[in-house]
Amino acid sequence: EIVLTQSPATLSLSPGERATLSCRASQSVSSCLAWYQQKPGQAPRLLIYDASNRATGIPPRFSGSGSGTDFTLTISSLEPEDFAVYYCQQRSNWPLTFGGGTKVEIK
Amino acid sequence: EVQLLESGGGLVQPGGSLRVSCAASGFTFSSYAMRWVRQAPGKGLEWVSAISASGGSTYYADSVKGRFTISRDNSKNTLYLQMNSLRVEDTAVYYCAKVLMTAAGTYCSMDVWGKGTTVTVSS
User: What average pLDDT does the segment B62-79 reach?
Assistant: First the structure.
């Protein structure tokens, strides 16, 4: 099973600041990695697919990079609605796995 | 509008059974693989099961293998998850999700999610 390790667990930032979230895989997942945003009481929302492609309707302040084992989600300037939990997910191999999540909270 | 709507959740005793459903609309359901993902209270996301577009291939997490069965009825645009021998640790919100088929031919991510249905296993 491919283990995805997200860091940090919590990121405390102010609106307008840059957020950098990390996801590290225990073995290569090529570019088969996605990022999701989840707010309390809501379903996850796809942000980034195949490591670096923004999903439909996702604003350009969200960007993804990386391949192999190291991936980054960057939010260039945090908006109030961006404070949420973010998960990475791989489907390079079965079983499909998620990272443990990074909570981006208001400082 | 592309939409997924889960139903069938509820309270069940340990050892019991439950079937949850996911009604799809707004897209050609029979063309897309589908997945179930769950989230225990206060915890992260956990993949449960997946099924190919035709229903011919199915996949399960080790935690549910032998107890849960995924299926689909493409004529009814509906995905199912039959859950048997339920355990307290199966308590979660269960989401169905549509697999994104990219122009590059990858099937890694899920682009449409339902709002979820809550399954509580308790005596």
Answer: 98
pLDDT at B121: 98
> Chain B: nearest CA to A18, how far in angstroms?
24
Residue B76 touches partner A, C-beta closer than 8 Å: no
pLDDT in tens, A14-34: 999 999 999 999 999 999 999
Mutate to test the interface with B, among A31, A45, A96, A98 (most CBs of B within 10 A): A96
Catalogue the long-range contacts made by A40-46 (C-beta closer than 8 Å, 24 or more residues apart).
Answer: A42/B115, A43/B95, A43/B113, A43/B114, A43/B115, A43/B116, A44/A87, A44/B37, A44/B45, A44/B95, A44/B110, A44/B113, A45/B113, A46/B100, A46/B109, A46/B110, A46/B111, A46/B113
Looking at beta carbons, which residues of chain B come within 8 Å of A33?
A: 108
Count CB neighbours of A10 within 10 A.
Answer: 11
Confidence of residue B104 (pLDDT cuts 50, 70, 90): confident
CB contact under 8 A, A95 and B106: no
B105 falls in which pLDDT band (50, 70, 90)? confident
A40: Cβ contacts below 8 Å, ≥ 6 apart: none
